[in-house]
Amino acid sequence: MSPHESTAHASIDWAALEVVARAAREAAYAPYSQYRVGAALLAEDGRVFSGANVENASYGLCQCAERSAMGAAVTAGARRFRAICIVTGGATPATPCGMCRQVLAEFPPAFAVRCVSIDGGLLETDTHALLPHGFGPSVLDGGRG
Fold this sequence. Notes:
The protein has helices spanning about 5-10, 15-25, 65-75, 100-105, 125-130, 135-140; strands at about 40-45, 50, 80-90, 110-115, 120-125. It is an alpha+beta fold. The protein has a single domain, classed as Cytidine Deaminase, domain 2 (3-Layer(aba) Sandwich). It has a 5-stranded mixed β-sheet. Helix 4 links the parallel strand 3 and strand 4 (about 110-115). The longest helix is centred in the N-terminal third of the chain and has 14 residues, at about 15-25. It is globular, with a radius of gyration of 15 Å. The two termini are about 25 Å apart. About 35% of the residues are buried.
């Protein structure tokens, strides 16, 4: 992490985001896996959007917490983000799945990601590190944007 990233991460109220993500996790609908996930997405303008995983009997229709939070944010007009906190069960924090990594990477610039397990595990990264060399908007505009 660069010194600039450290400063940016320090200005994020991670404790407040974690409270929101934990509350979202409690609201998750996970009757099949019993693996509840909550996310709190911090927009650049200070708004926080929460999301929870929503499972479905047709497994391909399940929605992850990260995409749920992003959908709420986009619906409210947010397009730039500072951070996301993701809370999962167990001792080891889980990172976003590949589909969620692609969705998070859709909104440059890269932003901070903190993955927390309910048993105290912690992993900090950013969206670029989660999906290096990812397919994004610049690919579609030939690198002009």
